[in-house]
Amino acid sequence: MRFVHTADLHLGRKLSQMSLEKDCRHVLRQLKGLVERSGAQALVVAGDVYDSTNPAEVAVRLWDSFITQMADLGISVLAVSGNHDSGARLAVGSNLIARAGIHIAGELRGKMKPVVVDGVNFWLVPFVRPADVRAWAKEQELDAGSVINYETGVLLVCDYIRSLDEFQKRPNVCVAHQFVTNSGVSPERSDSEHLSLGTLDNVDRSVFDGFDYVALGHVHGPQRVGADTIRYAGSPLKLSSSEVSQHKSFVVVGIKREDGATRVKYRLVPVEPLRDLREERGSVDELVRAAQQENESKREDFIHAVVTDDDPVDVVARLRRVWPNLEQVSFDNAITRAAGAEQLQDEVDLDTDMGDLFRKFFLAQTGKELAADEAKLVDDALEKVLTKGGDDA
Ligand SMILES: [Mn+2]
Hints:
- By secondary structure, this protein is α/β, with parallel strands linked by helices.
- The protein has 12 helices and 19 strands.
- Helix 1 runs parallel beside helix 2, helix 8 packs parallel to helix 9 and helix 11 packs across helix 12.
- The longest helix has 18 residues.
């Protein structure tokens, strides 16, 4: 069987207050075309359908219309919630629409069953935090005490799946939205993912041992995690200027059972954005000249301009005249370089004590030092989390 894997649609997101509605619509149209052309029976959306837990109406309409089109084509949709979604809101009506082949796992609840499409098991694991897994484990009479972080949480869910009879019967695909690392090596990240501070939320890829394919969402750059069959599809749209150099794609996955062995093939299909997000660097004069050389549709791109003049005048107005969708302006000149040198000495050492790290973070965010009673609260909470694994709070 064949399916298409994507993730991190972030419907409803804006780029510097500019709506991405028509860009999202353009991408969904391509996705639909690919599903039809490739002869896929299913589409996997590995979390972050929406950009927000309370998505804009325009985003809800886009998703509603898209899943209706998939159902009309007879394509099964296998979607999970991501950290940006509200699991409960994403999954509204999910038991009903499952009858039309639209399967949405918003929250970890009850006994898990695979969705079987053309002889392949799809296990939908919504985005979970350790406390979500502990609550579920208690209800299922599993060892909730073993869950002390994200990794042990996801491990408990995967161990449970592997223990089920259904797991032995067919090839298995896991759909999940987590920060998965390869023996301590982090995937290439960008700043639009809203990961939590530090590295406590990582899940080693070995947690997914035994699955034939792991369809991941969360990290926005398309990439494998230690194996071709464990992958981040990546977001189809560039969602921040840290993603300007990424090549966005969808994954077409084929799974075949031959002589008792499961064979997995995949290919990447590039996404063509309606409007690209790119970085352009130079003096304001150079940038304006470069823009004037571009054709009209290229000038509609989202531009992150890096301005190199030491004392530029009227930058935003001049650039916006040639690039109406100017997304961001930053400066790389004598002044920022001098300030940068100062900042370097200030960089945080990652081996530093978590309490110190939090105090620096608090100071940077609020401009205030933590009061003594606040500092004690933080230290107590950290001690709980780091030594005992915390409780359900
Ligand atoms: Mn995301």
